[in-house]
Design a protein that fits this description.
Elements (H helix, E strand, L loop, with lengths): L5 E3 L2 E3 L5 E6 L4 E8 L3 H18 L4 H17 L1 H12 L3 H24 L6 E3 L13 E7 L3 E4 L13 H9 L3 E4 L5 H17 L7 E4 L5 H8 L5 E5 L2 H12 L7 E4 L6 E3 L1 H20 L11 E5 L2 H16 L3 E2 L3 H15 L5 E5 L10 E2 L2 E6 H6 L11 E7 L2 H10 L3 E7 L2 H6 L1 H10 E6 L38 E7 L20 E3 L2 E3 L4
Parallel strand pairs: 5-22, 7-8, 7-10, 8-9, 10-11, 12-13, 12-19, 13-18, 17-18, 19-20
Antiparallel strand pairs: 1-2, 3-4, 5-6, 6-21, 14-16, 15-17, 22-23
Helix pairs in contact: 1-7, 2-4, 2-6, 3-4, 3-6, 4-5, 9-10, 13-15
């Protein structure tokens, strides 16, 4: 049942801030109930409860944290019909699409549960004492990853389950042993409250301190800013626009104690097709590329927004296939009316730029109201893009820009000019890849994930996944927000020198009671000492 209230200390807590509504973007109509924004005092209380919970939760065993994460996953699956129905009405996303997202949300919680239950993720490292070493003896030195403290998580607009209240940031922060305070996204507050109730209930069922989780509502930016500046908060995770992410980074950096911010913000995900691939697969690539850049109405952070094609006949075939699909496309509903307006204004500015040509627009009538739009296909020349790098900025929605390059040297120049990206895709034969090793080397420095003969949309949740990249794709290119490596964002190494066995964490004790992999004097082993 929805109350429209924040969740503090495990309980529904009315806020005394501004009141706001969720909206159905398909029709532009408000949804009940009214939601009450939290206050700065609520932020302080949530942080104090989280700090108190940290004293206990940071010492909880990997097995108990795993039980907590699995309980959240189970309760999400039990409540899936209600979650999916509310998310559908708040986001305009199809129920089928949300069913997939629900499965992903539960699976990533279980993935982190498995990780912390096994326990080796803590990178335990032991250098045994060498008292007889000359000219100086070596002390006993041991290190292990420990949680940071309360973590602030900002829900994302485009993934109301998998990157929101119980999503990957929350899962990885909880797995590392940190309490989490979530700032709910105002575009899907009902979905957020339902998910928040699930996490709070799961904590209670597992006997954990209620302060291990809190959910705060806000229609504006005051609560998010207060949360980042709250002295007890030790880290921030955010997925959203570059402007909002940069503003939060600036707030975190100007605190008396600056804290790490893990921001996913902006990416155009360059998609490069080399001649041999065009000669053999132009039509198929065109068909699949259309599906990729319009998936979820172009509202995925991995949407291919720049498509690099040579000036040749095979590229013309690919473009014709793309254009035919764009012209035949029906209207689609974006996540919010605000996102829809921003898409339209950004597209208007882009199409008004000298050197940018509209190749295709949908012939569908756009009179359904709400946040409905149609896809657009644009084209420019490589020289124009080099002279106007702003054309490479992200357009959040179902539009992509084809960039025609003249030769290999211009393609390399275009690649060097790219900003940091989440992904970079190459369609090429194996021989072409070998011949373009210099291009691959450039892209390695530009993106967190390189894809060959595939499509960037669809981020596999697995141990090896990297969903990050150089700025402005993210704030820290060394990290990922998807996959088990995401846990390292919310932990730091702590070294214990000459500690007696009884005072060491279990991960560092000689008998290795947890049976984890450890590095002992430079050798990876599970053996006791």
């Amino acid at each position: 049942m929805l109350h429209g209230h924040s969740i503090l200390n495990g309980c529904s807590t009315p806020g005394n801030g501004p009141v706001f509504s969720a909206f159905n973007p398909a029709v532009g109509a408000p949804l009940e109930p009214l939601f009450h924004s939290a206050s700065v005092a609520d932020v302080d209380r949530a942080a104090q409860l989280a700090e108190q919970a940290f004293v206990v939760y940071s010492r909880v065993s990997g097995r108990d944290k795993a039980d907590f994460l699995r309980r959240i996953a189970e309760n999400i699956e039990i409540s899936a019909p209600e979650l999916i129905d509310r998310a559908h009405r708040e986001s305009g996303l199809t129920e089928k699409r949300l069913q997939v997202e629900t499965v992903r949300t539960a699976n990533q919680l279980r993935m982190f549960a498995q990780l912390v239950e096994e326990g080796s993720w803590v990178n335990a490292c032991i250098d045994l004492a060498q008292p007889d070493r000359t000219p100086l003896p070596r002390p006993d030195v041991r290190s292990v990853l420990r949680p940071l403290g309360p973590v602030a998580v900002f829900g994302a607009s485009n993934l109301p389950l998998a990157f929101s209240v119980a999503g990957g940031d929350t899962a990885s922060a909880l797995a590392a042993g940190n309490p989490v305070i979530v700032k709910a996204h105002p575009a899907h507050p009902g979905t957020s409250e339902l998910a928040g109730q699930i996490v709070a209930r799961s904590a209670s069922q597992c006997g954990l301190p209620a302060g291990v989780f809190a959910l705060l509502f806000d229609a504006g930016t005051e609560i998010g800013a207060a949360l980042v500046q709250q002295p007890l908060v030790k880290s921030v995770a955010f997925t959203g626009s570059l402007s909002a992410g940069k503003a939060l980074m600036d707030l975190a950096a100007t605190r008396p104690e600056p804290i790490p911010c893990y921001m996913e913000m902006s990416s155009t995900n360059p998609f490069i097709v080399l001649p041999e691939a065009l000669d053999t697969r132009a039509a198929q690539i065109g068909k699949d590329l259309y599906a990729s850049f319009t998936l979820n109405v172009g509202q995925f952070c991995t949407k291919p927004g720049l498509v690099f094609l040579p000036h040749d006949h095979s590229a013309d075939v690919l473009i014709a296939v793309l254009a035919a699909q764009v012209e035949a496309a029906d209207t689609s509903v974006m996540l919010t009316e605000g996102i829809c307006r921003n898409y339209s204004s950004t597209l208007t500015a882009r199409t008004g730029h000298n050197g940018v040509e509209v190749i295709a627009r949908s012939n569908a009538s756009n009179e359904s109201g709400g946040a409905s739009i149609t896809p657009t296909l644009l084209q420019t020349d490589g020289t124009d893009l080099l002279n106007a790098p702003e054309l490479a900025k992200e357009v959040f929605g179902p539009a992509t820009l084809i960039v025609r390059y003249t030769d290999r040297e211009e393609l390399l120049a275009l690649a060097r000019a790219l900003e940091g990206q989440l992904t970079a895709t190459l369609h090429a034969s194996e021989a072409e890849l070998a011949a373009h090793a210099d291009l691959v080397a450039i892209l390695e420095r530009k993106a967190g994930r390189l894809i060959v003969n595939g499509y960037p949309t669809g981020v596999e949740v697995c141990h090896a996944m990297v969903h990050g990249g150089p700025y402005p794709a993210t704030s820290d290119s060394r990290t990922t927000s998807v996959g088990t490596l995401a846990i390292h964002r919310f932990a730091r190494p702590v070294c214990y020198q000459n500690f007696p066995q009884s005072a060491l964490p279990d991960e560092l004790k000689n008998p290795n009671p947890l049976g984890i992999w450890r590095t002992v004097d430079g050798t990876l082993t599970r053996d006791p000492l």
